[in-house]
Amino acid sequence: MSLTLLNVIAAVVIAVGFAALNAAYLVWAERRGAARIQRRPGPNINGPLGLLQPPLDGIKLMAKQLTIPGGADRALFIAAPVLAMFPAIMSFVTIPFSETIVARNMNVGVLMIFAFAAMGSMSLLFAGWSSRNKYAMMSSIRAVSQAVAYEIPMLITTITVVMISGSMDLMEIVRQQSGSILHWNIFPIFGNSHNLLMPFSFLIFFTCTLAETNRAPFDLGEAESELVAGFHTEYGSMGFGLFFMGEYANIVIGACLTTILFLGGWNCPFGLFPGVWWFLLKIYLLIATFIWIRWTFPRTTIYGLLNLSWKILIPLSLFNLLFTAGLLKVF
Amino acid sequence: MNSPIQLQPDETFILNVGPQHPATHGVLRVKMEMSGEYIVSAETVIGYIHRMHEKMGEIKTYPQFLMNLSRMDYLGALGYSHGHVLLVEKACAIEVPERAEYLRVVMVELNRIASHLFWFGAFVMDLGGFTPLMYALQDREHILDMLEAVTGSRLTYCYFRFGGLYNDVDDQFITAARTFIPRMRKSLKKYRRLVTDNVIFRKRLTGIAPLSPEMCRKYGASSAVARGSGINFDVRRNEPYSVYPEFDFDVPVFHAGDSLARYMVRMEEIEQSLRIVEQALDKLPDGPVMAAKKPKLIKAPPGDYYQAVETARGSFGIRLVSDGGKTPYRLKLRSPTYSNMHLFDEACQGMLIMDALAFMGSLDLVIPEIDR
Amino acid sequence: MIAYFSDIYHGLISLLVGMGITFREFIKPPVTVAYPYETLTMCARYRGHIELLADDEGNPNCVVCGLCERACPSECISITSVKPEGSKKKVLTGYTLDFTRCSLCGSCVESCNFSAIAFSREYNLASSRKEDFHIDLFKRLEEKKR
Lengths: 331, 372, 146
Known about the structure:
The complex is a heterotrimer of chains A (331), B (372) and C (146).
Chain A: H1 5-37, H2 53-63, H3 74-92, H4 109-130, H5 134-165, H6 170-176, H7 198-212, H8 237-262, H9 276-294, H10 302-330
Chain B: E1 13-17, E2 29-35, E3 38-45, H1 53-59, H2 62-65, H3 68-72, H4 77-92, H5 98-126, H6 131-151, E4 160-161, E5 164-165, H7 171-196, H8 199-205, H9 213-219, H10 223-227, H11 235-238, H12 259-283, E6 303-311, E7 314-322, E8 330-334, H13 336-347, H14 353-362, H15 367-371
Antiparallel strand pairs in B: 1-2, 2-3, 4-5, 6-7, 7-8
Chain C: H1 2-26, E1 50-52, H2 67-71, E2 77-82, E3 91-98, H3 107-111, E4 117-119, E5 134-136, H4 137-145
Antiparallel strand pairs in C: 1-4, 2-3, 3-5
């Protein structure tokens, strides 16, 4: 694939457009979904099914004044929301949507996504620290300790998959899962490994994705009943909007990664007609599950969350890693 | 997990929770001295919604003060009115028809269920789960509809009168109440599966803020706060009033004293209230709902009167000192939440802020009732 | 060790049960009333603010006894009247309700022995002007008569 200027511009526009559109309409989907779970109609006035709600919300946010609290670190305060959005968009560059639709495939795609994901918690730290608010500060400290605790089991689980595939290339990982559902990493009967613990790996990875994206029940960073609004307490206008969009963009990345690593990417469950539609179907099903989980469970505590990570997820994922390594050696 | 830690005095900072904070459900302010996320000491500051109800009791005639009681606690208004009418009836020796007394119990118990439902929803919302609140409000809505059809208002009911009731209930209410009971039982099952058995929920509440019975006695705590700590006390049974002795109901008592025990007591109380409503509807006698013999102008004879009732929030005491005039000489309202809340300062020391706010939720605070 | 795994297992099951419940609610229709588009009828006993009642000819039932004025705990009601010459009865000339102070307790309606006042079923009572809540009930009655 030659990297002409036109290609690059098109890729950037598509990546940013996809991220922004998803972020906007996932808010709508979340609100509608939450409403239905709670037996309410949800936003349904603006446009058919309330579909004009996200752009109108965006206009409202943009029309508002961006206030910077007195004594805040101005540079970091302004940089933080941008930083929240930036890693998510960067990660889209290397995500393969299908055999042909990928902005830039890299042989270290997994590594790159994790590198950018780690930057996400930095924006929370900046936001909390620079707003000069006690609630924001506490929230950002929580968010960072949470990110550290959950990156470990997530990485270990990813290493398990990488070991099975023998590649860090996302396209290669998906290619190896081609065929029916029985070839996918989540339930590998015919695949490279015959590790029957992989469904648990998937659960661990899924839980970590929830925690990494600061989603309920792990949304300690913005625990609204304790810390008012957490790290974005002092943000208004589009600063808040960017945090909001960044959150949803991260969710999309998390869902994409889960799909690629465990659910066979663009492959069809029956081994027929692989294509981008299957990929999109899978990520939106995952996102629907995210929303469903958020509106079902109460929030965990900070020590409950760390206990879950250090006492359950990390030992289990380490065991799984060793087990997989053993299996790969035997077969 | 949440053990007190050794601190340097200069490493703490003050966190002002409230008066406008999502966790305090109203205008309660808590000044917390924090060390990181741990609370070193806390001080509750009240009085932001003080409305001088006791002073109003002194300057208003007895009927004029009647509706003030329902403004004290906006979630369980009828229980407070019940205390007031019982007290004045006792003072003036007014004979209340039996039907009126039964209907009062039905109304109070329905109101108690509505109040507990709202507390349940708000409590789970404090813990970060929003959906159970909506389910609880749906069930509460049925009660509010029933009460609205009878009393004419949805929140600040003014239904009880000295000597009886404002008006009689119709058959529609009886049928609605009868269909409500099985529906509520079904919902309770749903709540048990959705919330009570949930592992996150249990992990968050088990062992949080264990209160000893001594501490509850020291602060004069009542309701689920005391019963969750193993104190078997319920005014409805221990100091029977109205027609409560005629009903068969249990007083749920849990001994753990933690936030989960307080939660369990309240959920069990909903079931017991349903039982009382069921029995009261079965036994409901016919007859008038207003006393035939009632003084035209209510004037309590000189003396000192006291009446305690079990409201949704605990044991509510109302004391009346009369000099025989048109208005009371002194009207003292002992609000249960006031006592329950003051536990917070002592109990939350050394706790994480998350747990402290979960604990505060389990106390079931209604701020206008504390400030009165 | 067994307790460790059974804890995880039971925890997971409880989470799945919870998700099952929310899913069942998800497929049920909404129960809310889309307020400005649909409205509920107020029940017969609804306690709105008070209004004056009139007899068949449209004259107010009120005989200016002043009981409601005295019964009101918040002094919301002010009545003006004149006594025409040669007549024993007073005639109502003004009946103002200060709704800013009214707490809808209904003492006035109960105190009335001539069924001159009743609760209205109005509930859309929002305004940004204080004057809107000094309701001249007598004028309303006159307007209704016309």
